Design the sequence.
């Protein structure tokens, strides 16, 4: 009906042959990316607070960050009910996106919690 | 949405409680490894994980031919607005000629 005809409200983009889906609804993909980014940011802040409370220093804290990010990735893939291709166009979007942005928040809250709990 | 938010607040409260216990010296985290504090921390962490996965909302399908994507509505564009007016009662002039 209206799916094949005019598509002025849902901007469809075509990608290369590499992806399975050639056209998709970009606004839904943007919404999914917003959800992923929100979850990752919140959990990196919580992970930073936990690292500070536990008193981790040095390399162990970053190990905890990777563990928290891995748990987040598994949780997001489970939220997408393991059929990733109906919500995202490639695997990198749900696994790697927001990784480095969360690292900054993690270190900030890690130092904050460590100072509050162990030094102050 | 409200329930997920409450679960997140509860998880953060658990973390605050664990931090307070650590400050007071009730939980000596620095000496021992895995006994007392991870119970509080683990519970708070699990609550925060479940809140972080439910609060932002659902994933929407990106296939153009899935069930909820089939009906596409146009934005409020003046060129495509349809008004139910009485011009259909006017006689249709199918025999127009150029005036010269």
Sequence:
């Amino acid at each position: 009906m209206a799916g094949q005809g005019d598509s002025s409200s849902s901007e469809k983009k075509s990608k290369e042959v590499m992806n399975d889906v050639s056209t998709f609804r970009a606004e839904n993909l943007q919404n999914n990316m917003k959800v992923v980014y929100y979850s990752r940011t919140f959990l990196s802040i919580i992970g930073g607070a936990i690292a500070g409370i536990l008193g981790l220093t040095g390399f162990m804290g970053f190990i905890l960050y990777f563990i928290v990010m891995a748990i987040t990735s598994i949780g997001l893939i489970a939220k997408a009910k393991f059929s990733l291709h109906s919500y995202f166009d490639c695997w990198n979007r749900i696994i790697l996106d927001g990784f480095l942005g969360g690292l900054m928040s993690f270190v900030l809250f890690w130092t904050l919690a460590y100072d509050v709990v162990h030094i102050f | 949405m409200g329930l997920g938010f409450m679960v997140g607040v509860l998880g953060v409260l658990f973390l605050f409680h664990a931090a307070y216990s650590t400050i007071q010296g009730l939980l000596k985290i620095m000496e021992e490894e895995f006994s007392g504090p991870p119970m509080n921390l683990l519970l708070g962490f699990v609550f925060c994980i479940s809140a972080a996965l439910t609060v932002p909302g659902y994933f929407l399908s990106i296939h153009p031919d899935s069930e909820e994507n089939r009906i596409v509505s146009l934005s409020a564009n003046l060129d495509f607005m349809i008004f139910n007016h009485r011009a259909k009662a006017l006689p249709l002039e199918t025999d127009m000629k150029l005036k010269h």
